[in-house]
Task: structure prediction
Amino acid sequence: MSDLDGLIEQHIPRLRRYARALAGDRAAADDLVQDTLERALSRFHLWRQGSDLRAWLFTIMHNIFVNQVRSRARRYHESLETEPAADAVHAPEPDWLELRDIASALSRLPHEQRAVVLLVGLEQFTYEEAAQVLGVPIGTVMSRLSRARERLRTLLGGDFKAASLKVVK
Amino acid sequence: MSRQPITEADLHAHVDGMLPPARAAELDAYLAERPEEAARVAAYREQLVALRREFDAVLDEPLPQRLHVPRLYWARPLLRYAAVVAWLTLGGVAGWQLHAYTADKQIETTAWARRAAIAHVVYSPEVRHPVEVAASEEAHLVQWLSKRLGTSLKIPHLGDIGYTLVGGRLLPGDRGPVAQFMYQDGKGQRLTLYVRVNPDDSRETAFRFAQEHGVGVFYWLDRTLGYALSGEVDKPELLRVATAVYRQLNP
Result:
């Protein structure tokens, strides 16, 4: 087995975890991972030896995911110009009884926000690394993170520990 | 003690454990006086726990077949096609440039390594018919290809370095028949050794390397024969195998 295979293989479980959380269902997530790996293998000569392979792979996955979201949005004749629009198509207001789990709350975030929450919270990228993967300034990462976490808090029913609900708009 | 103002970004960095200890202590002191902010931070921390609880199990799931790396090489015809186009284009450009500046011999060298790479890309993904004559008929394979190339061929054995012979085939080269031997490792990763008769049988060259679209080729001339070893493996691995091939052919 070549070094290249081994290098890439060790990242597959984490790519799958991220894809599952990002895409929602298992088949779509593994499709995303497969597309990512194929693209990475065919472009491996573009990877700079010694640079962070994990960041490179996640960047590839992010780009593929965004393209998929865009082409889907085009099919629905939806604009992505305003942030919440894309996912709002599939995200009716939550049923407050059902909505206690993190997966369905995540699915109601705009995908840009979901990606930040997952890269930072699940994959433990630094804010700088997340900015690099997503190709946005770090300030954008911070504002998306802030909005996403607040939205999740609302969706998940407010505060876990403190009983105060008045913060919820 | 003068404190820097606490920002929203600080709160998140605190949640994510990214603050230096001194600053984290300041954050804790700040939050102790502000129950609503503290509740918010606690909720964000709960989100982290919930994310891990929900998705960490994916890490331990067995990989489906389609996500095994060696399999991915053979999966998509489009990828193979892209590699062929890349090699054709590269050869075209390189050949043209060389034409302008250097001797014909070098153009010729580039061209045959390119043919080897394309033959690799075309035949290595074959599932049912990767070779014409299988390794089980090795004696016949050597005899047949030696006869067709008009010289005595030797097939390197690479079992010691993890590659077994799949078999071989006859191919058209630009100046007559060439031979292709195929090897594969335990994971199905394939390498091909392309052998041709040199037009100018006195030449020897060092290893040369070319790579395009994930397909690498080491090629060299060794008096009467020219060899090109192609594979979708990284350069050090291909060099390791090329070196073993060379040593066996020049004991």
Notes: Chain A has a mean pLDDT of 79. Chain A touches chain B through 50 residues (CB under 8 Å). The first helix of chain A runs from residue 3 to 9. The two ends of chain A are 56 Å apart (CA to CA).
